[in-house]
Amino acid sequence: MKKSSEEGKVLVTGGGGFLGSAICRQLIRKGYQVRSFSRNIYPELVRAGVECLTGDMRCPEDLKKAVSGCDTVIHSAAKAGIWGKPEDFMDINYKGTLSLLNASKQAGVRRFIYTSSPSVVFGNQDIRGADESLPYPQKFYSWYACSKRHGEAAVLAAHQGAEFCTLALRPHLIWGPGDPHFLPRLKMRADAHRLFRLGSGDNLVDVTYVENAAAGHLAALLAMSRHHFTGGGRAYFLAQDEPVRLWDFLNKMLAAIGRPPVSQSLQIPFSIAWSIGFFIETIWKISGSYDKEPPLTRFAAMQLCRSHYFNHGAAQTQLGYYPEISTEDGLTALRQYSE
Length: 339
Known about the structure:
Blueprint: E1 9-13, H1 18-29, E2 34-38, H2 43-48, E3 51-54, H3 60-67, E4 70-75, H4 86-107, E5 111-115, E6 127-130, H5 143-157, E7 165-171, E8 174-175, H6 182-191, E9 197-198, E10 204-205, E11 208-209, H7 210-224, E12 235-238, E13 244-245, H8 246-256, E14 267-268, H9 270-287, H10 298-305, E15 308-310, H11 313-319, H12 327-338
Parallel strand pairs: 1-2, 1-4, 2-3, 4-5, 5-7, 6-15, 7-12, 8-11, 9-14
Antiparallel strand pairs: 10-13
């Protein structure tokens, strides 16, 4: 069913990205008017019927043009990664979000969905089945997580009920065909014989197939459009139905792209991985090497060794989110894409 033109457009920041493009495609299929705001023009989005604008998240004037005529903003643009200059993460993920919030309110936007990350609550501990009451940690081990925490907090604090309804979604470890981030790194390390199992290998983590993550944003949009919606001003975890054993899952991904599994004999205990990560970070900082990602950091060691999976009940009851594509079906799609 086509959406009324009176509802205005849905702006997707980062619409050309891995998750953003999936959100745009799903919105178009549902009949929404869609505008993408990214650094580049993406012909595949233009062909799909998406209005594409280019600009910079750090430029308020660009953001004013982007939100003009839109009733909903889905803010998925971000500077991602485990390494980089702190000011780059903060300028885009925090200050850029503040500018976008301000532009949205001035333009009369009614709904604002922020693509956050479970890393905003990840310190140096295992997380097993926690819900959204889990507080932000006192210390962060990556500037990405820190900047996303500040961006998320700003979005939730901006909630003003039906007048300006905001919420944050925390999809965990997004993966699938066309992934330009995690999968290429995994493939590169496998081809260079630089994959080592860190930790015991028993840690459980949440993962989210990209189409499910995108569908979660549409579910949030539909829920926020209902007059009786009371779930604004809060964050929601998104993932598959069940957590996976991380290293078993990584081996399945490797198999899907035609690479051998990680050898169990090449196992590094967490304490050693943490120490190596700390040493490498220190060297990188002293040398000012912010453009090249270190082979290991403390944050990466924790992500690969700790359990981190969550309770998704709030997303189910408040947003009506349930993953439609199973993990096994997602791996099948990945295998077919890689052939």
